Amino acid sequence: MLVLMLSSAFIYAQKTVTGTISDNGGVPLPGASVIVKGTTNGASTDFDGNFSLDVENDTDVLEISYVGFKTVEITVGSQTTITVTLEEDAEALDEVVINALGFAVKTDKLGSAVSTVKSEALVSSGETSVTNAMQGKMAGVNITRSNGDPGSGSNIRIRGANTIFGSTQPLIIVDGIPISNSN
Prior knowledge:
3 helices
């Protein structure tokens, strides 16, 4: 009987905290982190900015963070529903690169080189295709014309010729649409 009473005390000691996280404009922030400070207990918000998290004590502190926003700490207390508005942190982001896998990373933290070409440089080159206009403007990228015919493709080689399937042509995606660079 004593064991049942003690186990029920532990069950009632935990409570579920739910809430919504949004920005200053009221737009929900999907993927925001909500962690009980000092523990590994945490959750992330869904598409609508909602989260649900089990906490053990009323003294637990929730640490709420999101990329580009200031981190907020809130003591749970007697609250079971929490609404948080995060403020933008202008100093948090210097420069962000979205790589092929969709991860946002800071360029100074990358273990590889990043090169960019401004649109003005492509327009002033006078070439008929974007691929030929990039020729000689990026480190580690070798672009050669496949032949002299008008409208013909270009061969692009990025730092070597290692491949599984025998093609050294990179996959080019512009606004989510794959672009063919075949001859």
